[in-house]
Amino acid sequence: MTIPTTGLTVPADSGQETAGTTPQLRASVLRTLLRDPVAAACLAYIVLVLMMAAFAPLIVKVSGWDPYEFDQSAIDANMGGIPLGGFSGSHWLGVEPGTGRDIFARIVYGARASMLIAISATVLTTLLGVVFGLLAGYFGGRTDMVISRVMEFLMAFPALIFMIAVLSALPADDRQYLLVVVISVFGWPYLARIVRGQTMSLKQREFVEAAVASGASRSTVVFTEILPNLRSTILVMVTLAVPGYIGTEAGLSFLGVGVVPPTPSWGQMIASSVNWYSVVPLYFVVPGTFLALLVLSFMVLGDRVRSVVDPKGRS
Amino acid sequence: MASTETPDPWGAAQAAPAGLETGSQPSPDSDPILEVNGLVKHFPLRQGIVIKRQVGAVQAVDGVNLQVYPGETIGVVGESGCGKSTLARLLIGLETPTGGSIQLTGREMVGSSGAKLKAMRRDVQMIFQDPYTSLNPRMTVGDIIAEPLEIHPDVVPKNKRTERVRELMSLVGLAPEHIDRYAHQFSGGQRQRIGIARGLALNPKLLICDEPVSALDVSVQAQVINLLQDLQNRLGISLIFIAHDLSVVRHISHRVAVMYLGRIVELGEKEQVYNNPQHPYTKALLSAVPNPDPSQRGKGNQIVLEGDPPSPANPPSGCRFRTRCWKAQSVCAEVDPALEVTSSGAQAACHFPGETPSRPGVAA
């Protein structure tokens, strides 16, 4: 390739090759999301569930029934405990067959367990996954080897069996904290593996070398050059992790090793509804709908958030 | 029309147009900004699965001596894999040399670390080859150009930084109002201008350009090269310009260094090297440049080297070029030629520099 001699007369400051789009303002992510009706609906539902979880005692006072309170008048004892009515003024979402406990109150309190466990587990896995992924990817060599072997071990491990075994063997008093720890220990390698791979490729990019050549310290390189480029990856993984962990918690509660009764949880409610599904389908539908909508909302919202924060996705 | 007798295809047709020669002349009398002595970089080759042992080394850069004076441009040319980019990475401190010394305005860079190295890095900045990967896609242009200023906070006070970034943007021909745009919103040439602005942010004394135009379109190449020349005239910085495009190097450089297998084989003023090449490798390299005159093409004055370049992991004894050289004698295999001043005034590392004996089979 040679430059033609005639081309050399191009003046040096004729540099406006193209006029780009209008200057872009860093619009608030939230504002952009709220303009999107689907994202706004998802966000509204998530906020609703979060509020339910946060203000559970207050809400229960308004609805009038405690989640642990048995209402024998709402069930037909002669028919094996079938509820006498569905949705009603006193029991907004009906009552549990057999015991007569208020379903609405149990859903509100169950949101507490689900959200608390899912969000804490997500925070913990994200922290572990990002830190170990960055360490392995950035430093490489022996650090990478040790971390990678640990990740492979954890991913190959039959996690569900281990969880059931550990959770049923250990005392049930601190089950909630234990659930978070166990889910996180087996969850972080999935994020760490992706973060590690991306860090390794980002480390080789010239903009990272440019920062190193300018004299940037290791922490500057990691936190200002590499981490921002991992943002959308982490965000996607996190938004997929939250519904995943809600599902895991529900699943473990369903299997009887999650949240301990009488503390309500959505998974546990679905588990106990299995015996009644042909007689009282409502008992199955209510917690199932809440759970499915929550998982769906997180997934859709995650997708929308990603398209907003990724500058390449913006036009 | 160039005559058929012209041994050098670089005759009148390729002479740089008048008026575009660099205005500021290098001052070889003053102390060099950069002095490189016996610079060596060997990449170890390891074998084994658990216990890795060294079985050899790729001699990417092997004994390079170079001086760069204030305000001059040194062009470094050579084929792929000859160590040009490794040399640049050594000079910028991205690689640690195996041996030798790099003195930057009298301060030794090899072996220094921490605050001392950081202070030295202010004086040498680099422009990268690919403007698509050298800019962080998550940062705005303003953040990219301001980054070196953040790393060296004492250069420009915090409240003056935006002003400085705008000033740099207009200096390289970008509209300062585009400060909040992202890099992907610019064209290749504009992105390279952003890279140049970042390189200039710290007022460096030496700018290393590692193939800064090879990823760009030909018309944009000329703009970027002229911008670099213009900036050199205005700011008086020195440039090390690495390229494999000989005509680009000829246009921008004051002096030219030709590299082969990790060594400089010829070093001299641009006219000396281009008009009267002393080293047979330089001669072959220059003869391979396409002739702009179609009637001259295929007239047989091109030197075709035999074979491939030897592996840098196992270079030949003596002169490294001897395996492909038509002048090679027994002495070439035994004695490694030193870089010495030849009749043209340029330095060449050859036992038989100059014209004779000409290669048999090459038409005059």
Describe what this molecule looks like in 3D:
The complex is a heterodimer of chains A (315) and B (364). With 315 residues, chain A is mainly alpha-helical. Chain A is built from eleven helices and two strands. Chain A has one domain: MetI-like (MetI-like fold). In chain B, the strands form two sheets. In chain B, strands 6-7-8-3-9-10-12-11 form an eight-stranded mixed beta sheet, with helices on both faces. Chain B has a four-stranded antiparallel beta sheet with strand order 2-1-4-5. In chain B, β11 and β12 form a beta hairpin. Classes of the chains: A mainly alpha (315), B alpha/beta (364). At the A-B interface, α8 and α9 of A face α2, β6, α3, α5 and α6 of B. Chain B: Keywords: ATP-binding, Nucleotide-binding, Transport.
Question: Which helices and strands occur, and which strands form pairs?
Answer:
The complex is a heterodimer of chains A (315) and B (364).
Chain A: H1 29-34, H2 37-54, H3 56-63, E1 75-76, E2 82-83, H4 103-139, H5 141-156, H6 159-169, H7 175-203, H8 206-213, H9 218-254, H10 266-273, H11 281-309
Antiparallel strand pairs in A: 1-2
Helix pairs in contact in A: 2-4, 2-11, 3-4, 4-5, 4-7, 4-9, 5-7, 7-9, 8-9, 9-10, 9-11, 10-11
Chain B: E1 34-47, E2 53-68, E3 73-77, H1 84-92, E4 99-104, E5 107-108, H2 114-121, E6 124-127, H3 141-151, H4 161-171, H5 188-200, E7 206-210, H6 218-235, E8 238-242, H7 246-252, E9 255-260, E10 263-269, H8 270-275, H9 280-287, H10 330-334, E11 340-341, E12 347-348
Parallel strand pairs in B: 3-8, 3-9, 6-7, 7-8
Antiparallel strand pairs in B: 1-2, 1-4, 4-5, 9-10, 10-12, 11-12
Intertermini distance of chain A: 34 Å
Whole-number total of structural domains of chain B: 1
Our count of helices of chain B gives 10
- Indicate the proportion of strand residues of chain A: under 5%
Which CATH first-tier class of chain A would you pick?
Answer: Mainly Alpha
- Which quaternary structure do these chains form? heterodimer
Strand order of the largest sheet of chain A: 1-2
* Strand order in the sheet with the most strands of chain B: 6-7-8-3-9-10-12-11
Count of discrete domains of chain A: 1
* Number of helical elements of chain A: 11
Fourth CATH level, the homologous superfamily of chain B:
P-loop containing nucleotide triphosphate hydrolases
Subcellular location (chain A): Cell membrane
InterPro entries (chain A): BP-dependent_transpt_permease (IPR050366), MetI-like (IPR000515), MetI-like_sf (IPR035906), OppC_N (IPR025966)
Family (chain A): Belongs to the binding-protein-dependent transport system permease family.
Organism (chain A): Kineosporia mesophila
